[in-house]
Amino acid sequence: MTHILQDPEDFAADALRGYCDIHARLVRPVRGGVLRSTETPDGKVALVIGGGSGHYPAFAGYVGPGLGDAAVAGDVFASPATELIAEISRKAHRGAGVLLAFGNYAGDVLNFGFAATRLRGDGIDVRVLAITDDIGSAPKGEEARRRGVAGDIPVLKIAGAAAEAGLGLDEVETVARRVNDRTRSFGVAFGGCTLAGAKEPLFVVPEGRMAIGLGLHGEAGIDETDIPPASELAVLLVDRLVDEAPAAPGTRAAVLLNGLGGTKQEELFVLWTHVAARLRHHGIEIVAPLVGEYATSLDMEGCSLTITWLDEELEQFWLAPCDSAGLRVGNTLPTRPAPPLPADDAARTTWPEASPASRSAGTFVAGTFMRLADMLQAAEDELGRIDALTGDGDHGMGMARGSRAAATAAQDAASHQAGAASVLAAAADAWADRAGGTSGAIWGLGLRSAANALDDGVAPTDEAIASAVTQAVEAVMTIGGARPGDKTLVDAFEPFARTLAAQVAGGASIAQAWSRAADAAKQAADDTADLLPRLGRARLHAARSKGHCDAGAVSFAMAARTAGETIE
Amino acid sequence: MTHILQDPEDFAADALRGYCDIHARLVRPVRGGVLRSTETPDGKVALVIGGGSGHYPAFAGYVGPGLGDAAVAGDVFASPATELIAEISRKAHRGAGVLLAFGNYAGDVLNFGFAATRLRGDGIDVRVLAITDDIGSAPKGEEARRRGVAGDIPVLKIAGAAAEAGLGLDEVETVARRVNDRTRSFGVAFGGCTLAGAKEPLFVVPEGRMAIGLGLHGEAGIDETDIPPASELAVLLVDRLVDEAPAAPGTRAAVLLNGLGGTKQEELFVLWTHVAARLRHHGIEIVAPLVGEYATSLDMEGCSLTITWLDEELEQFWLAPCDSAGLRVGNTLPTRPAPPLPADDAARTTWPEASPASRSAGTFVAGTFMRLADMLQAAEDELGRIDALTGDGDHGMGMARGSRAAATAAQDAASHQAGAASVLAAAADAWADRAGGTSGAIWGLGLRSAANALDDGVAPTDEAIASAVTQAVEAVMTIGGARPGDKTLVDAFEPFARTLAAQVAGGASIAQAWSRAADAAKQAADDTADLLPRLGRARLHAARSKGHCDAGAVSFAMAARTAGETIE
């Protein structure tokens, strides 16, 4: 369906005008089509391409250095007029002759053929190539009757490279005919295309069905079937083409998996893995594959696969640089391949060097996480019940799973002589990765921030602990975006951190300071828990949509008290 | 609707695997995302980007030289996990720090923020940028709350160029924040997107309606309206953005017109012309615009417009080369602008030098075309009636229109002292261009082939005339594809040419020879005309589908006789 248009009658011309403005670096508009806007040397064979519109990037999108010299554009799905082809060819001509190339359709054959006759009358040497890649349009032995579909692209790319390389018209024609003879395409459609301004598609494929061998303009296909999984679709496409391989195919091939307009790139990527595997199964080496929209039919849903069996010269031209809106080959920046990556470690076994005091503190931290995990496992149901008052009730499960993973990771790190900072970091990362949900990420973030504030080289002082806790709550508020009063764990965490810092600064022992901070957290959490059932759903929803967890204050206060019980 | 898939659960991962295989020149797969496959020098700031899948080319498509160093990919529309972001960032890190850049969504903010905390714990300098370009998602004054949409692309492009240029992390971050502050996007949707494997879209826009300001995942928009013409849509998009221009915007801007997945390139091209005009109306100079699919939402129908107001440094980075699957900037071949084209001639006024005898023959040819045009005008209804027996009845009209145009052009050429060959060529071209339909093209082709066989330097001999007619029928048969017996004008043309050549070779005068040839044509045409009503529709349809016209033999025979009457 076309939603953006001005006048349906002018759709093709309007689109071409916009295209020329966008790609002025490459093309300039002329009556009936486009011409390169870059300088072309005298004595270069001109490649003039074209056909009906509605197939972008075909054909105007393939004009530029290393590809077409000009494109003639008819109305949607209609051949361009003879005189426009001749007129544009005269402008593109650089004294070395013209190759006219287009898909094999009656109207195009006639108009390009007639244009060639006119140009010859002007003394211009012209060759005419109707591209015939679609094996769905005529049987073996009648190759010359076949339509041109996405095989246009390798044929034009290779012919364009031959012309750019300075070959004469005889040679360019020979190369172009050879690549056409060695190119085969086959396509399927899941849905029809709709002309600009029309309410109904040109044709319909029943829901869940797939038309096989259907043409770019809805020409009748050869079969219809249920849509198979990607792996089977790949086999269907590849095997039909391989069965039609030209004589002396060789083993190397250019491959194009083309979307018809209404099929997403991601779908083509999914299909590609299976196509590539099947091609390799047949012993075909894939050379610089193209996957994307290269010859479309407005919004038709479907795809086609094209194979061009290469020889040495064709491969050289396939890989030669070109620059167009629809196809670019070659580097814009010099590059070299990167060295291989080291294998991912299965499990971490080395940790930063730690002082004896810090290692001892690390063992203590690991023990605290074991207590925490046991407590939170026991509290799982209670926390779930509180969470279910206002949310989806999974808070207890997440806290239990996260704290258990943290405890295991902390024990592992401590057993490898890690210091307190490293043990806490290991616990943090494991909690975030295993707990799931927002609260897991928040706990991981807070613990990691605290770990980053510590140093494996020395035993943490009381001041260092208080400072680490302060940095943790600041990270949670900054990154999580919640403030005290938002009914999240920050409601308890913030007074905890503030009290802890004040108590330590006032000379209290860390055990005393922690205990008073845990009391402050508990009081705040109780206020929150009392309030939760009385909050409106809308306000809760708003808080949750920011990624906050309403039972978080309660579980934080529990955790703070349990941790405090381990501090001697 | 997704038609190509293997397992819906694995859609994002499957697509990423295919993408990596296709673009192995640029990227290599790592757990949870992709890394450049090209060498990156030590000391370069690493740009690590990412977010949910389903937005291709965002984000994996923007990894490559001059752009991202790595991309982390979550599941469809879901943030990637913290540890994957951290792990991939460690692999991308080249000792100069990491900029994490992503669209501003709660899950991404949390996971990238937490990953940054972990990386800092590893001693890596990390900066975090949540991109906030979508003016539809929060009002002025609350810019930091806005979502990131297609504005991701200019921000990532410019930050990537800054990193590639060797700037330090502080400078890269400064540039990235500045381009984000100077980038605004606004979008509309005509239809919702459908998750792989789902039968229903995530949301629906009523037929003929347009959601304004809707988010990339279907987040509620700010308004809904009837779909306007492209010109009005352009004003809506441009004016809203211009109204939100940053402080000190300057006059030069990078512009991106983005398709959301289900909107065709041609539609974007149509819209672009109006967008560009409106931007220029506001005094904005467009710098290297991008029009296409850059940040999609599966198959969502709609588009967005992004403006990045440039300063000198930002423009330099916007234009710097980059190489990725989703965006390439820079030449792959050296080019220079082409010289301007000469203006098209309004009408041709000069012709090749012709001998007096050929000029005289040219005047005779022009007179013959006047007689032909008069005769075919008189016969228009009769030819239409014969054609309607088997076809659409427009043959008479086409022949009348074509022959009148040919006569006018021939008179004009003759009045400019053109020789016989040039007069015939002018008639041929005018006939083809004005008659329309297949018969017009065929007549033009035949006449042009005959003209090409003559020479303006000498008066045509009888042998030259017979030879020109033979070449004409051969061109018609070769290019048109019809043979005698196919019920086309070839049925009459072929015996005409054969008889003419034989008579001339046998010593008959051209007048006698032509008269006998015309008789042969008439007899063949009568046979054909008698046969037409008795042919089955299927056989006629087959002939017509090849581009043949059934009344052509009759009109050819009439024309041959009329032309003969002028030969003295």
TrEMBL record, chains A, B:
The DhaK domain, residue ranges: 7-327
A GO cellular-component term linked to this record: cytosol
Keywords for the protein's UniProt record, in alphabetical order: ATP-binding, Kinase, Nucleotide-binding, Transferase
A GO biological-process term: glycerol catabolic process
Matches recorded under SMART domains: Dak2
Domain (DhaL): residue spans on this chain: 363-565
Source superkingdom: Bacteria
InterPro entries: DhaK_dom, DhaL_dom, DhaL_dom_sf, Dihydroxyacetone_Kinase
GO MF term set: ATP binding; glycerone kinase activity
Protein name: Dihydroxyacetone kinase family protein
Provenance organism: Lichenicola cladoniae
